[in-house]
Design a protein that fits this description.
Length: 459
């Protein structure tokens, strides 16, 4: 028993030491770390506690208040929506900012730090608690700022960057988005121009939603072109504001006929913006969303970006048939002719149905044919074909739909400068398309799988 006594005693001592460390030392160390961390913070508030913010500079004082879902509002010097991302970005930088060192405990001379006449004064509110922070000059390195809290009057060297906090104006914090909507939820689009109007609907087709042109003609829309237009419309930003007043009233009289009027139907409601460029020489352009709302100064190139003609909005794929509808594809060149048939999601040759084909090669070729777009329009309507090599085309491709009735044809003629003249069922007229397809049309032997080679059927 005695030989175990020392071991038991040692274990008791270790247990006691562990208990001391756990009960006394570790909590004290944690409190010390917490205290040091709190001392290094510039302000003691947390992001979610902030209930108000004001930024005062030589130019003006901007007062901001969070609304529902913490969407920020400007309450002075005028009442309007704020750019919540801009406000949150400034607050986040402030909450994460640290005190590098205390320069002066009770500074009597503030001028050497730029704090006698601060570049900006921030007042942060968290319920009944408030803190005012004066920002002065840049510190020894450009990514630091001298600051002073009103609560303790200490001159601090901080890691706040001048770019994030100085030279902030009312314009900085105003919401500059002209038309607020979610472009992914748009259901209808109306584009009204001085000489024409287009109406587009989002419609379900083959378990997918696709944009269709309903007026002035009925046709498939170019999905990428419509989404790009909606993205640019959602991203339209004001360069400046003309708020209601004498200047607003005078300018409203000049903005009689818009260069474009665009209405987006989203979640059962219309969002409308009118675009004006009354004097193209001056370079001034404006956007108006509602009577009594500010007139937005905008970049004049936006009007060009949002003004579209029929060719730009139409589906520019020449063949005019989607892959899910395709049953047969007839390929005719000046050297060869064959027909591909889709049997149970696997391609076979019409005259050699027992031969295995390289399914991946066929899929790639069919995809290129289906998706070949027109790049340039040559004529609006189909006229004489001989000048374009389309009387006896270099390649002719005919698609038959699964109903056995609908057929679409595409012809490729003379190549010039990387483009080939083309006609297609999908678009009336003569166009130029990329000439790559002419060199990508496989001969029949290139489609046949070698003996023993596995094929990859379409899933």
């Amino acid at each position: 028993m005695k030989r175990y006594g020392f071991t038991i005693l040692f274990a008791v001592i270790l247990a006691g030491l562990g208990a001391y460390l756990y009960i006394v030392e570790f909590p004290a160390e944690r409190r010390q770390v917490l205290t040091e961390t709190q001392e290094k913070k510039i302000v003691s508030f947390e992001m979610g506690e902030i209930t108000g913010l004001s930024i005062r500079s030589d130019q003006a004082e901007v007062v901001l208040t969070p609304g529902e879902n913490r969407i920020w509002k400007i309450t002075a010097p005028l009442q309007t929506d704020a750019d919540s991302r801009e406000v949150d970005s400034l607050l986040r930088a402030l909450m994460l900012g640290k005190v590098s060192r205390v320069v002066e405990e009770n500074a009597s001379a503030l001028a050497p730090f730029g704090l006698e006449h601060p570049s900006a004064v921030l007042t942060i509110s968290a319920g009944s608690r408030h803190e005012t922070l004066s920002l002065g000059d840049a510190g020894p390195i450009s990514s630091t700022l001298y600051a002073m809290r009103a609560s303790d009057r200490k001159v601090l060297l901080t890691d706040l960057t001048p770019k994030a906090f100085l030279n902030k104006t009312l314009m900085t914090f105003r919401d500059k988005q002209v038309l607020r909507f979610d472009q992914t939820k748009a259901e209808r689009l109306r584009l009204t121009y001085p000489k024409t109007e287009f109406v587009l609907y989002q419609m379900a087709e083959n378990d997918k939603k696709k944009w269709k042109i309903r007026a002035p003609l009925e046709a498939d829309a170019d999905q990428i072109a419509v989404r790009t237009l909606l993205f640019k419309l959602e991203d339209l930003k004001a360069l400046g504001f003309i708020d209601p007043g004498p200047e607003h009233a005078a300018l409203t009289k000049k903005l009689a006929k818009p260069d474009a009027k665009i209405t987006v139907h989203v979640n059962g409601a219309d969002r409308t913006v009118k675009l004006f460029q009354p004097d193209p020489v001056s370079g001034e352009a404006y956007a108006v969303t509602a009577t009594g709302a500010p007139i937005y100064r905008i970049n004049p190139t936006v009007i060009k970006d949002l003004t579209k003609e029929a060719f730009a909005l139409r589906d520019k794929r020449l063949l005019g048939m989607d892959l899910p509808d395709l049953a047969m594809l007839s390929v005719k060149t000046r050297g060869e002719q064959y027909v591909l048939v889709n049997q149970n999601n696997e391609w076979v040759l019409e005259d050699q149905p027992a031969e295995k084909l390289k399914q991946e090669a066929v899929d790639l070729f069919v995809s290129r044919v289906i998706n070949l777009p027109a790049e340039l329009r040559v004529t609006r309507r189909e006229g004489p074909l001989a000048p374009y090599g389309l009387t006896h085309p270099a390649a002719e491709i005919t698609a038959t739909a699964k109903d056995g009735k609908r057929r679409s044809r595409m012809a490729l003629g003379t190549s010039v400068g990387g483009l080939v003249y083309a006609t297609g069922q999908g678009l009336p007229g003569i166009y130029q398309a990329r000439a790559d397809l002419l060199t990508q049309i496989p001969v029949k032997s290139e489609l046949l799988a070698k003996a023993g080679q596995a094929t990859s059927p379409v899933p």
